[in-house]
Structures are given as structure tokens and as C-alpha cells.
Amino acid sequence: MIGNGQRGALLFLVRRLSAALPVLLGVAIFTFVLMRVLPGDPAIFFASGPAAGEEEIRELRAKMGLDRSIPEQLWIYFKDLASGNLGMSLTTGRPVVADIAERLPASLELALFALVIALAIALPLGVAAALSPGSILDHAVRMICTAGVSLPTFVTGLILIYVFYYLLGVAPDPTGRLNIFLIAPPSRTGFLLVDTLIAGDFATFMAALHQLALPSATMSIYVLAPIARMTRASMLAVLSSDFVRTAVAMGLGRGTVIVVYAFRNAVIPVLTTVGVVFSSMLGANVLVEKVFSWPGVGSYALDALLGSDYAPVQGFVLLMAIIFVAVNFLIDTLYSLADPRVTVE
Amino acid sequence: MKITGGQHLYYVLRANRLTAAAFAVAIFIFLVAIVGPFITPYDPLESNVASALQPPSALHWFGTDQIGRDVFSRVVVATRLDIFIALSAVALSFVIGASIGAMCGYLGGWIDRWISRMVDVLMAFPLFVLAMALVAALGNKVENVIYATMLINLPFYVRYARVEVNVQRTRGFVDAARVSGNGDARILFRFLLPNVLPGMMVQISLNMGWAILNAAGLSFIGLGIRPPAPEWGIMVAEGARFITTGQWWTVLFPSLALVATVLAFNLLGDGLRDIVDPKLRT
User: Fold this and answer.
1) Superfamily of domain B5-43+60-280
2) The pTM is what?
């Protein structure tokens, strides 16, 4: 027997999923069309050279499926997607799925670490600013927020490198996830910080943390502003609501009112912002990974793009969209947990 | 006494100092974009290997880059290109987005459903990734950076115009327009759209800053604008190679120009929003 509440939750999940599916389908068609528009004939590009014969090019075209009709190619593309086949990277000579699986943890580690730092700083800042509107702190937060969204990540990254690597000498060489003289621990999760701890290798853990510090700081500065801004606005709105006034009037402690009454209600719009922010991090990753030679999916896609190797780009764009849809799905679900009144319209 | 538009602007800006400052900076940047190429001390493309990577001096205010070009001249000349890209992209997405959105909101039905679906799909991509893929797909040209930036800005305008028109089309003045014999197209463009535009104007300033960041980011990773064209993103990318050896000026000055411009547009946008709609103040 499924209880009423459980059935409601299940129905909610199914509805949300069925709303996400057309979007995913659209995303897949869009990436296909995008790659069909890409300039140049990949077959000519990857033939042995400018002297390649007609025969060789035709063979390559047939091998890559480029000689079929467009609907046929789309059908083949969908079948490949369904079986988890994203094609071969012509530069690395490996399946795109394998390449991405190897590099995705590096990107996720960077993005998630940066997000945690940003949340840890932005939430208290936003709440503090909302508690004393008009104060110096409030103005400072507003200033930080505006400056933060005006700073391109690649500029922040380069400034951090100049200050902490060149001037102060406290940061390691800004290339990659780990100093080349250190041996990476056996890969279990692909997250270096987790893998080193599992292996009990504390020295390598610290080294990895060192490498991660600057790129994740760059990312945090980028996402701090929108989160702090939304926290402040949302807290301000909640703090002036009737139920907070009632709670204060009933003589509840300041801490209880702020944390339990105000913050829990203010956190819902912040959740939405975090989803949007996470999506923009997936894009900013490309820039940050380039600045710090970070071996993630962003730099992988970029290298492929500049080398006219389109299967990895297609895979990357599709993957980012899927992650984004998944994150939003997750947030909508969290949303309904935080606020039972929220339903799918 | 009749108050002119200029007097009103002066009054509003005097009460909002920060917005006034941002407004002044934005005007200055537009001026530089217009006259920039005529006032530079050096040719932005002229290389001089003998004086490569010189720090800032009286001769070269912002120093010289890796092949001896004057960084100051390049930063100044680049303003026109960056502003041109952002302005055209935002103008295009505003016009196209507002028209499509207003049409959807007014007509409803299957057109509305399909276009909303397509907008949902566009919004499902991280915007910078989408811009990257679009420029790669359309080709490495300046106009394609504009189209890509236009397309990723489009959803905001479509959604805004759609919702606003949808709300306003049942209001009295629309009925009045209809009974006095106006057709759908005329009601939409003559009566509804003008009532939706003011709210969207605020978004334009915020989007300008964002469009500049986007274009600079694309050229930073080697897409869109090609060297040796002077452009802030390319200059930062070229200077990045020398930051670990301490030649900061090739990165700092184009970055400053970029950040100052974006900051000015963002502050202006925030200020305008506070003036137009104080409720949204955050």
C-alpha cells in the first residue's frame, strides 16, 4: 500500500520527469543540427593530408556516416545516444564517452568545491546585510555583488595567479591538478581530494588542495555575487513578513527567529539561484580551465573545437545541457521538500 | 512650468550619485569608441620587436606587448569593436525577442506553445557553452559572435514580453482599441508593445555588460575575433602567457578597460531599475 503522501510525491516526480523529457529531446536535436552546420567537411580534414585521394575521402565519409540523408543521420545519432555512444574523438583516438568520463571528475571537483566555498561565504554575508539594511556592511555587500558580476573569470584568475604565484610565491605553478612529481592515488571516485584521503596519502591531499585553491577561488568569486544578492533580497522580504513579526512579538529568541523562521523560508529563492549559478559555472569552467590548464571537460571540448574535432564538442554540449536539466530537476524536487505548497502547474 | 526630458534626467541623476557616475563613464566609453582610432599615439598594429614587453613609461603609458605594440593604443582602439558587438547583439535580441514574445503572448495557442518549448530548450544550455558552440558552428567571424550573443540573450526578452503582453491584452485600452476598429497587428505593435518596452529598457543596460563579457570571453578562448585585431579579450589572452613571469601590464590594462565598462553598464542598469521600479530593488 502506498500512502497518500508517498503517492503524491511519486506523481510529482513522474510529472517533473515528463516535463524534462521534451527539453532533453530538443537539446539532442539542437546539438545534432548545430554539428551539422559546423563548417568544413570533417572527412577532408581528417584524410591523410591535402593529397588524399577521392577514394580515401569517400571511404572516410562512409565510415563517419556522412553520406547518408539527414533524417537517417539523426536516427543513427539517436540510436547511438541511446546506447551511450557519443562517437570517437579523432584527436585522442578514443571514444568520447571514455574521454569525458575520465575528465568530468576534474571539472566537477572544481565546480562543487567552488560552490561550497561560495555558499559558505555568500549566505552569511547576505543574511548579515539583510539584518542591518543601510549599514556599512550592507553597502559593502552590495558593492561586492556588483563588482563580482562585472569581473570576468579569466581576469580574476590571472590576477590571482599574479598575486599568489608570482608576487607572494605561496601558490603552486598554476598548471593542472597535481604537481607532475607527485603520483596520483588510485582513482576510485576521480575526485583527487577524496581519492587521496581514501588512500591515506595526506601529503598528496594537501598538494591537490593547493592546486585547487586558486581555480576554485576564481570560480567562487564569480558565483558569490548572485548568491549573496539573492540571499539578501530574500531575507529582507521574509524579515518584514507578518509571521516573523508575530514570532518576535511572541518573545522568541533572535537566533530562533532568524534561523528557524526567516532563513528557512528565505532559502527557497536562493535554491533557484544556486541552480542558475551552477549552470553558468558549467560555462565558466571552460575559461577557468583554460587559465589554469585544468584537465577537465571544458578544456577538452575547447581543444577539440579549435582542432575541428566535433564529436567531443557535441558530447560536451549535450552533457552540459543534461547536467543542467538534471540539476534543475533536483532543485525543483528539493523545492517541494522545503515548501510542500509548491506543486507542478 | 513645463519640465523637459533633459531636466527630468538631470533631476533623477542628481538624486542617484552612483547611477550618475556610471552614466558619465558609459558616455565616456561611447565617446572613446567613436573617436578612439583618431586619438591614439601609436598605430595599434605596428610592431617593434626592439621594444617588446616594456613596462609602462612616459613613452608607452600602458607598456608594450610581446611584439612591441603599444598597449594603450590597442586598449583605446579595442573599445569600438567591443562596444559595437555588444550594442548590435543587445539591439537585435531586444527587437527580435520583444516581437516574438509579444506575438506569443497576444496570440497564444500552438505558436505560443512551440516557441515557448524552443525557448526552454535554449535555456537548457549553459549560455557560454551555447555561445561557444554557435560561433564554432557558424564560423569564426565577428558577425557570428554578434549572432551568438543575440541568441543567448533572446530568451529573456521573449519571456518578458510574452508575460507582459499576456497580462495587458485583457485590459480596457486594448478592448477600446479593438472596438474602434484596429486590427490585431496594429493593436499589438501600436498599443501593447509601447506599454511593455519601459520595463525591458532596464534589462538592456544590464545585458550590455553581460554581452561585452561574453564577447571578450569568446575571443579569450580563441573564438570569433582573430588576432591581430585589437580586442580586450584577445589582449588578455595574449598577455596571459607572461603573467607567470611578472609582465602584468599586458593583462592588467585591457582587463581594467573591460571591467570598468561592464561595471558601468551594470551600475547603470541597477540604478535605472531602482528608478523605474523601486519594488525590485535588491
Assistant:
1) MetI-like (1.10.3720.10)
2) 0.83
